[in-house]
Amino acid sequence: MKPIAVITHVDRADVGLVAELARERGIALQLVRPYRGDELPPLDRVGAVVAMGGPQSAYDDHPYLREEQRYLAAAVGDDVAVLAICLGSQLLARALGGSAEPGDSGLEAGMITVKPAEGATTEVAGEFFSFHSDSATPPEYAEILARSDRYLQAWSAGSALAVQFHPEITMRGIGGLLAVEGPKLERFGVDVATMRRDAEGYFADGADDSRTLLNRWFDRLSR
């Protein structure tokens, strides 16, 4: 299979479980950092695209974010499989005619319960790690797959699956996130120690819900 283009938005990006499951399947990853000037690879040279999270906002006026949106729209138009995570999901929503906006209920951080939407054709459910303050409104034709008590959490459109939470992250990535964002979390009233313990318990149990979701996405690539 052709490599998977992984678009990152921060130097310390934790590709985590995506990289682990790709190795198990013998699929190479091609990391792309557009904010550092990397060119997005031609779509005919990649087998899929993963658009990661990051500290930017999808509505920021960065040329590389505008170019990424055009790229994601072209990928869906060419029926290339896309997995869009957090910021990636917000960029994808804008690319396909939806929108991204500041979160309507503030920061969502830590382990969350995701529940499948009524009538969804693909089940997205379980416990996942989340960290974001912006949110996405997908295009009207998208299928809503899952929600939490606070936010839309998963949707699909054509060849794309978008999630607001972080199925790819590992404890290493969460540790780095807490080191950088600890003060911000405390300003929002988040108990960082509890957040860390909850995440450690999730990964000690195998992060099964994240692995299930990612394995289902990888399974689609071989069809």
How does this structure look, described?
The model has no long low-confidence stretch (mean pLDDT 94). The protein contains 6 helices and 11 strands. The protein starts with a strand and ends with a helix. With 223 residues, the protein is of the alpha/beta class.
Overall pLDDT confidence: 94
Q: What amount of the residues lies in strands? A: 25-35%
Number of alpha- plus pi-helical segments: 6
- What is the overall silhouette? globular
Main β-sheet description: 9 strands, mixed
Residue ranges: pLDDT <50 for 5 or more in a row?
none
Looking at how many chains there are and whether they match, the oligomeric state comes to: single chain
SS content category: alpha/beta
Strand order of the largest sheet: 2-1-3-4-11-10-9-6-7
Helices and strands, with pairings:
Layout: E1 4-7, H1 16-24, E2 29-32, E3 48-51, H2 63-77, E4 81-85, H3 87-95, E5 99-102, E6 108-116, E7 126-132, E8 134-137, E9 143-147, E10 152-157, E11 160-163, H4 171-187, H5 192-204, H6 208-221
Parallel strand pairs: 1-2, 1-3, 3-4, 4-11
Antiparallel strand pairs: 5-8, 6-7, 6-9, 9-10, 10-11
Helix pairs in contact: 1-6, 2-3, 4-5
